[in-house]
Write a structure and sequence with these properties.
Blueprint lengths: L1 H20 L9 E4 L2 E5 L4 E12 L2 E12 L6 E14 L2 E11 L4 E12 L2 E11 L4 E5 L3 E3 L2 E3 L2 E2 L9
Antiparallel strand pairs: 1-3, 2-3, 3-4, 4-5, 5-6, 6-7, 7-8, 8-9, 8-10, 11-12
Length: 166
């Protein structure tokens, strides 16, 4: 019985973690997670990957020192994912780095803290806390904010979120 619950928890992680981590709603692409070790805590409803964590799906990669997925009671829904230590999220020419990334499933947002920076090409935004709202395609930066945005062509400027231009 315990083995089945552990197996269910691990399978649940591999099925639902990608949609949250990579903000690819409806993505059916497989995810590949490698780490030095993995620990599943069935009573705590969480799975932790430790050491040289690399999670890949399609053209998105997340690297960190540790990645923990926590589920609701009974392991039915993913509650949150926390990536800590040297967090780097890349997709094509978009890069985000932070000391910590928190992916909240019910709120559908990603919170980057600790030396948080997001850039695309030469454009960069940094702040104490960067929050990306997945369903709204909206980003807020809290605390001391710094942005460097390069003109792309006459009258059009790069959008630091990478979603179109002004």
């Amino acid at each position: 019985m315990k083995y089945q619950k552990l197996r269910y928890l691990i399978l649940f992680t591999l099925v639902f973690l990608p949609s949250l981590l990579f903000a690819a709603e409806g993505s059916k692409q497989p995810i590949n997670i490698t780490s030095d070790s993995m620990e599943a805590e069935t009573k705590a409803n969480k799975v932790t990957f430790r050491g040289n964590v690399v999670a890949r799906q399609k053209d998105m990669t997340i690297t960190s020192n540790e990645l923990t997925a926590t589920y609701t009671e009974g392991g039915k829904e993913l509650r949150e994912v926390v990536a800590t230590g040297n967090v780097r999220i890349t997709q094509q020419d978009k890069i985000a780095v932070a000391d910590r990334a928190l992916f909240l499933n019910t709120e559908r947002n990603i919170v980057l803290t600790g030396n948080a920076k997001v850039w695309q090409g030469k454009d960069i935004v940094s702040g104490d806390k960067i929050i990306y709202f997945l369903d709204e395609d909206r980003t807020t930066v809290e605390g001391r904010t710094r942005a460097v945005i390069h003109p792309r062509k006459e009258g059009a400027f790069a959008n630091p979120t990478g979603k179109g231009s002004n």
